[in-house]
Amino acid sequence: MKALITGGAGFIGSHLAEALLREGHHVDVMDDLSTGSIENIQHLKTHKNFHYVIDTIMNDSLLHEWMDHCDVVYHLAAAVGVRLIVESPVRTIDTNIRGTEKVLEAAHFIRSTQSSSKIEFFSYEEAYGEGFEDMQRRVPDISKIKKQIGFQPTTSLDEMIQKVIAYFQMKGAL
């Protein structure tokens, strides 16, 4: 498999490149180094299946050229970091939204003219916020609704649906 990693000189992208190379895949990296670092991929430069270019995903012709020869695109290119977002909000929005749009447009064009490319999206905690401290132990409190609809842990799904419908009918919502 031949993969293109946009934002491949970032922390996640460089580790993904390492993993793909270990599995025997060919890896191309495109990164403008605005938030990534050449040091993250320095040790990969001598690998025979590794190629990189320092450029932006906003460069349509280069993006099309590099995507044209790959089986999968791991789209990690993004302007991240609170300082960058505060100092350059327009650039951040342009890179994150328009850049992603350019990757999708290139994939659509390539797919319409030849074989299909698969696009994989990844993101960072900054996009979603922090998760619950311990998702395994967090149990939502549904005691009020359990009491109102007479839900018991042994209630069948059909029974529960009937009780929910009856509850909303009683309240005049259905």
Fold-level CATH name of the largest domain: Rossmann fold
CATH architecture assignment of the largest domain: 3-Layer(aba) Sandwich
Ends apart, CA distance between termini:
53 Å
**Quick one: biggest sheet?**
5 strands, parallel
**CATH homology group of the largest domain:** NAD(P)-binding Rossmann-like Domain
Whole-number total of structural domains: 2
Widest β-sheet, arrangement of strands: 3-2-1-4-5
- Overall shape: it is elongated
SSE pattern: EHEEHEHHEHHH
- Mean pLDDT score: 80
Q: Spans with pLDDT under 50 lasting ≥5 residues?
A: none
Beta strands, count: 5
Architecture overview:
With 174 residues, the protein is α/β, with parallel strands linked by helices. It has two domains: 2-128, Rossmann fold (3-Layer(aba) Sandwich), CATH 3.40.50; 142-174. 44% of the residues lie in helices and 14% in strands. The chain is built from seven helices and five strands, in the order E-H-E-E-H-E-H-H-E-H-H-H. The protein has helices at 11-22, 60-67, 82-87, 89-113, 125-128, 143-149, 157-170, and strands at residues 2-6, 26-31, 50-54, 72-75, 118-121. Strands 3-2-1-4-5 form a five-stranded parallel beta sheet, with helices on both faces. Helix 2 crosses helix 4. The N and C termini lie far apart (53 Å). The model has no long low-confidence stretch (mean pLDDT 80).
